[in-house]
Specification:
Layout lengths: L1 E3 L1 H12 L10 H10 L5 H15 L3 H6 L2 H8 L5 H16 L5 H5 L3 H9 L6 H10 L10 H9 L8 H11 L4 H18 L11 E3 L5
Parallel strand pairs: 1-2
Helix pairs in contact: 1-12, 2-3, 2-9, 5-6, 8-9, 10-12
Length: about 210
Amino acid sequence: MTTITIQNLYQIMFDQMGPQGWWPGESKFEIAIGAVLVQNTNWKNVEYSLDNLRRTTQLQPEKIHALTIEEIQTLIRPSGFFKNKSRCITALFEWLAQAHFDWKILSLQSTAKLRAQLLKLPGIGPETADSILLYCLDKPVFIADSYTRRIFNHLGSAQFSNYAELKTIAEQELNLTLSEFQEFHGLLDDFGKTNLKNWSSSFLAPYQLVLPKY
């Protein structure tokens, strides 16, 4: 068994899998909406909802902001939990409107401050907040989603059931650029979708992760 660090893990996965081009979306507004809609559903259902929004608003932020909550519910119904998600999208675009829908203006604030603001919005939890930070606000953060925790657990370092614990440890160790943080999330999720069920035959099976002690 070969021991590796989290930094090593990124490089091994990138060498084996190559660039992933994550997150799917033609604009940061589409990415942010997708991060909300994908909660508790699959991406195919998200695509149906995004297509509905695209036909109605061309995914222009001012037009989305002008929609009533009932109109949003109808458009995003394929994604499920449409009442909760419509409240979330309404609150998110109200928040964006305060910055004139300018991601660059928002990104001038610290990661911690932006994350706190996002977590105060209804329906936005740690994973959704970090996805928006990473892909829309260009903040280098680690997304410790369920696929990632399962991969780390398979690597035998610890049993991570807590999002915040793994996120903190990973961010303390990793020395990655913004684009590498974005790639790492894509690598972990794509590996999770295709290899977790066949772990013993995957290219990560020979490795054991050693975590730093803080």
